[in-house]
Amino acid sequence: MQYKDTSDLEISLLLEAIYRKYGYDFREYSQAHIRRRILNRMALSGFEDIAQMQSMVLNNVPFASELLQDLSITVTEMFRDPAFYRSLREKVIPILKTYPFIKIWHAGCATGEEAYSMAILLQEEGLYDRTTIYATDFNQLALNRAKEGIFSNKLIKEYTSNYQLSGGKESFSSYYTSHYDNVIMNQSLKKNIVWANHNLVTDSIFAEVHLILCRNVLIYFDQNLQNKVQTLFYNSLINGGILSLGSKESIRFTDYFEHYSELDLKQRIFKKKY
């Protein structure tokens, strides 16, 4: 491989070191994303170069954990992109209603907002009691926050607006209780969510499921890694299962384009062909 400059080589060696020492594989993530996060951490920590930071990563576990948090993707919100959830209600829920039990995989669930959003939607559509939601991420700190279901009060106005625009049928405030500066999601929403550590890059099939949601994660992967993850998703879905991606993502340039039909192209919702 040819490197444009020394820092590209140093980043490559750093990622290799992280993989060999800790088992987290960022080697096929988008180079722009990785470079931006690493250089930001280098500046914050006062390192003169990436090689110096690599030595710290290999010999200081707390610092390595800090860098892993930088490299992971935890941008999310409740009912993110309301039009997507409206499409779920109109085009996906009728399909899910045909199954006696339902398994849903939120891959890369971050701090859990979208898993709770799905639980609310399923509850309103009368499907939650026969559904298991598998919410997975490799970031254990994010998963711990997700399990708690505690979010800042400052976000609730935006979340409430998203919920209403998504076609919500109740008062959003009925799904949480306020506690000082935070809100706590109702226990009834947590009962059928299984939180689990799973790495899309290095781990295998998680479960056979009816619906996969992996939104705004694949944009951080290079083309080879996207194909690898799409293989994982394809093999995890039942025939006729639904794949939901983020608004900036597509299966068009992957090996699996011909294996899906489009349920809602604008919202990136695809159905696995029989």
UniProtKB/TrEMBL annotation:
The source's domain of life comes to Bacteria
The Gene Ontology biological process terms listed for this entry are: methylation
Q: Which UniProt keywords apply?
A: Methyltransferase, Transferase
User: Is Nucleotide-binding tagged as a keyword?
Assistant: no
- Residues in domain CheR-type methyltransferase? 1-251
InterPro entries, per database record:
Bact_Chemotaxis_MeTrfase (IPR050903), CheR_C (IPR022642), CheR_MeTrfase (IPR000780), CheR_N (IPR022641), SAM-dependent_MTases_sf (IPR029063)
List the Gene Ontology MF annotations in alphabetical order: S-adenosylmethionine-dependent methyltransferase activity
The protein in question is named Chemotaxis protein methyltransferase CheR
